Amino acid sequence: MKITDLRCAVIGRHPIVRIVTDEGVYGLGEVEFTKTYLKPFVLHFREALIGEDPTDVERCMLKIRQRGSFKPYGAAVSAIEHALWDIAGKAANVPVYKLLGGKVRDQVRVYNGSIRRKRTGDKPEDYAADVKWMAEQPQNFFMVKQGISFHSNMKDNVEDFHYGVRQTRSGYHGAMDQGQISERGFNHMLDCVIAMKEVLGDKVSLALDCGPGWFLPDAIRFANTVEKYNLMWLEDMLTGDYVPWVNPQAYRELTLSTTTPIHTGEQIYLRHNFKELIETQAVRIIGPDPADIGGIAELKWVAEHAYMHSIMMAPHGTANGLLGLGALINVCATLPANFIAFEYPSASDPWWEDIVIGLPKQIVKNSMVDLLEAPGLGLDIDPVGAKKYLLEEDAGFFEP
Amino acid sequence: MKITDLRCAVIGRHPIVRIVTDEGVYGLGEVEFTKTYLKPFVLHFREALIGEDPTDVERCMLKIRQRGSFKPYGAAVSAIEHALWDIAGKAANVPVYKLLGGKVRDQVRVYNGSIRRKRTGDKPEDYAADVKWMAEQPQNFFMVKQGISFHSNMKDNVEDFHYGVRQTRSGYHGAMDQGQISERGFNHMLDCVIAMKEVLGDKVSLALDCGPGWFLPDAIRFANTVEKYNLMWLEDMLTGDYVPWVNPQAYRELTLSTTTPIHTGEQIYLRHNFKELIETQAVRIIGPDPADIGGIAELKWVAEHAYMHSIMMAPHGTANGLLGLGALINVCATLPANFIAFEYPSASDPWWEDIVIGLPKQIVKNSMVDLLEAPGLGLDIDPVGAKKYLLEEDAGFFEP
C-alpha cells in the first residue's frame, strides 16, 4: 500500500488531515480547533510521505517526527500519525488499540476539562455555582477541572491579583502573564477552592489548571496550603500550555515540597522532552496530548516510562474534537495502570456530532466511554453531511 | 512609534521580514534559504505585533517568543526580532551593537562553514583536495569545517559505513540516518581527518560537522582517537541540526570522555533549552544561530551564561544570507571573550551582493569582518535592484 495524497481541510475550526492510498483506504486525523492556522504546517509534510507505505507507521514517522516541536508545532505531525494508524487499523481490519499492544480496559475514564458554560464571574460563589453545574451534567464526570490564577480571568478581574507587569494588549495565551501573586490574590484563590469543595465534597473530584506564569515560591505556598482539600492535581503552574521549554528542575522543587500532586506536560513534544521530568520524578502526573506529543504511539511509550517511575497519566485533549476523541479512546484503552482519565474533548461546533460516524448517541456514561470497535480509529466523517462546511478550496477533500 | 505592518517576501530562497512603522522607519530580518517554506509561519505573528512599539523590543518579544520552538520553528520569531532591533537602532541612530551593551571588539572573526565547491568524492584524497581549496580562498579563513559521517554523503557512498537501517527514500535532513558505525566506516573517517590535517597543518584549523545520528560509544571512541589532531571541535554528533531535543546527559558523557572539544546547539531555541547543556558542562562549545535561537539578544544572553561556565561560543549561520550576516556581526561584536568565531553565511544566490546595500566589496579579510556602522543592523535591500526577484504576490513588499 502506498500513500498517494495527504490533504488538509479546515472544517469548522479543526484542520482535518486525510491521507489517501492507492488501495482506496484512507485515514483521518484531527488538529485542535485552537490551531485553525495549522493547515500549511500539515501540508508541509505532504511530499515527504507520498509513496510511503502508511501501514509501516514508524517508517513514515521517522521521516517527519524530527520536524515537529513543542506546541503548536507537534500537532501537524501528531494528526498525521493518527491518520496513519487509522489506515493501518483499517488495513489489518482491527481497531487501532490492537496495534498498540491491545486493550487493558473495556471502558476508558474521562474527566471534564472542556464542557463549560460561561462562568458568572470570578468570585468564590461564581466558582461554586460553576462546578455545581458541571457536577449536574449528564456525563456524571468523576472529576472537573477549573481554571484559576493565570489560567483564568481572575488575573485581570481580581484587583491587584499579582505584582507582575499587566499586559495591556492581549497576546498568545501562555507564558506572557507572569508575576508574584499578591496575598489578596492568594486568598481569593483559596476562597474559590473552599467554595468549590463545599459544593463537590468527595463526590466529584477537583483539579485546578493554574497557569503557566507562577513563580516557585507562590506555587510551593499554594500547593501546601490546599493540601487538606485533596485536589486531584495542580496543573501547569510553572510551565505548560504553549511554553516551549519544560524546566523540570523547578518542577521537582515544587513536587518535593508538597503532598498535592503536581501535573504538567500538554505542550511537550516527544519522549525526549519528557525524559528528565519523568526520570527525576519532577512531577506526580503528566498530561501529554496525543495530538501534540507526536501521536498515540508516542503517548503510549511515554505512559509506560511514567508508569515505571510511579508517575500518573492524565492526557490532555480539550479541543481535540470528535476524531481526536477516537484517538484518545484507542490509546487510553492500552495504557498501564497509572492511567487516571483523559480530558474529554470538545469540537469546534455542535454540528460535528451530526457528521461524525461511529459514535454512540450518549458518548459518556458515568464518566466512562466505550471503546470504538470499528477498524482503524473507529470514526469517519460523512462526506455528504460535511459538504456544506467545506471551504471552496477544499472541494476535493473527500475524493478517493 | 507603532508597527503598522509586518510583511514577508521570499526573495531568492530567503523569506525576508519587513516591519513597517507609522514613522516611516522600517526594519529587516532574514530567514535561512533552507527554510523557504517559512513565509506563513512569519505572517502568523503579524496581527500580534501591529500597534506595538518596535523600539521596546522585549515587550514585542514577550508576545511572540513562546510561539517559537526548536528549528525550524524559532526562525520566524528570530527574524522578526532582528527586524525589531533594526528599527530600534535606526530610531536611536546607532548600530544595534550599541543597544546590546556595546562592542568589545572592532572586528569579528569568522570561519568557513559554507563557502564550498562540490567535493570530488568522499575519499581521503577528495577531502584533502577540498580543504586545500578552502584554505586558498581569498578570505584566508583561520578555520574550515568539514562534514563527515552522517553529515555527508559518506554514510551512503562508503560501503557498509554503518549498520543502521539504510533509508532508501530521502527525508528531511536530521535525525533520520542513525546507526552503529562499522570499523571500516570508522577508519575511513580517520583517514579523511589525517589527509586533511596533512594539508592544513597548524596553519588552518579544522572542525568536523558529524551528524546527528551517532550513538555514544562510537562518538566517544572517535573523539578519543582524533585527540592528537587537535581539532577545533566535533559538532552535532548526538543531536543537532533539526533534532527537536537536546539530550544533555549523553553529551556530558561524551564531553567528559575526551580532550576533543564537543560542540552543539544550532537547532536549540531559547536559553531555557540551553540551560542544562550549559549548567552541567555537557559540551565545551555551543553554536546557537541568531536566526533560530530567538534572536540576537537571546544569543547574547546565552553567550554570557556559557562564558560563566567556561563554555566557548561559535555561532552557527550557514545559510543566513547577507542580512543574516549583519545580525551576526552586530551581536558577535558584543559577545564576551568565550567567542571563537561565527560561521560565515552564504546567501541563496550570488546576486544578493548586488542588491544588499551597506557591505564592503571584500567582506572577509584575514578571516575577519569589520563592524557595520550604519544605524540599525547596518544593511538594507535596494528596492529597485530587488524588484526583478520579487514574486507577484509580494509586489507591495517595499512600500512605505
Automatic annotation (TrEMBL), chains A, B:
Residues 124-261 form the Mandelate racemase/muconate lactonizing enzyme C-terminal domain. One of its GO terms (molecular function) is lyase activity. The keyword Transmembrane does not apply. It comes from the Bacteria. Keywords: Lyase. SMART domains: MR_MLE. One of its GO terms (biological process) is amino acid catabolic process. Pfam families: MR_MLE_C, MR_MLE_N. SUPFAM superfamilies: Enolase C-terminal domain-like, Enolase N-terminal domain-like. PANTHER family: D-GALACTONATE DEHYDRATASE, D-GALACTONATE DEHYDRATASE-RELATED. This is L-alanine-DL-glutamate epimerase. It comes from Devosia psychrophila. The lineage of its organism: Bacteria, Pseudomonadati, Pseudomonadota, Alphaproteobacteria, Hyphomicrobiales.
